[in-house]
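chain below, 356 aa
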Amino acid sequence: MSAKKKHPVLHTAIVLSLLGGSAYLTVELRKDEQAKAPAVQAVTDTPLLESSTGQKSGKQTWERLKNPERSVLRGEGGEVLATFTDSARTATLKGPSRTFTEPANTKSRVVTEDWVRLMPEPWRKGAEKEKWFKDWFKEFYGSEEDDIFAFAFQYLEGAPVKKDDEGIAYGGDASFGPINPNGSEGNDLRDELSDFYDYLGIPYTFRDGVTQQPETKRARSVDCSGFQRLVWGYRARYPLMSSDKSGDGLPRTANGMARSDVGADIIPLKGVGAADRPKSIDVLQPGDLVFFKLDARTNQRLDHVGLYMGHDTDGHMIFVSSREEVNGPTIGDKGGTSRLDGNGYYASTLRSAKRL
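prediction:
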């Protein structure tokens, strides 16, 4: 065989070698990405799915509790299977256990059997007897369809992009906002004001008829309240206001949300000073919105909001929010550990809580 005829074979070997190396690097990069990505562990148990709301009856009982006024469904052994709070659409249902982690930013692990979902109507005493509730409960109790927690974790660092049938990327790693030219590390490094439609990159018309246009520089970004509006509003379909003053539903800012009449005030807002820190936070339930006073420059305004997830495996009360220090949604430790208990940065600046 001549030297000229050997070249194609040699070229083929080189190409295959390069392709093999490329495939190896791709696999290793993917492993690295997966190690950083927020993780939701697979279901680890199966809850009792019998119910006095339309399925098998006689093994569960309903109970009315106070502070806040709510109805609780208990199992045969007295365990709480579901909680429904007056004036709130948020329902907390017991279901298969899940583990939420964010390896890139914290060692905290939240292992929970709580599934947080929105009911089609606000709860009221006796609603367990109404058809709308029986139909809803039958569909969602024990369901593994994405809930509020699953939605929230689809925006943490490393979360994969999710697209709808129209090609709109509605999920995936979100940033907090663009770099603030007048800011610095620890001092407004990133611009606020990125709402869910900025993240999506699409115009959005609210129920009051106002249409908001996304800003290109804010693409794939949500500030703390924009994150909650993305999760609760765009994903879970809770009504949204176009601002803090126009329309009905969840307002635009943390301050607007905290002071609005939507849902039920679980820890009423008394004031924004250090003396107004709640004396007890035991009343909190997974799925509650928690509000903070972080910045003295905002005067009487509350300036941060998070979503309470429950206790981590070390017993600390963990919340998820979008923050400039981590540049996006997180349960992490950078810029202050995401704990509501103790005397850390966020624990000491907590001022109120609401159940939507």
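The CA atoms of residues 64 and 71 lie 5 Å apart. Residues 1-6, 12-31, 41-58 have pLDDT under 50 and may be disordered.
thats it, cya
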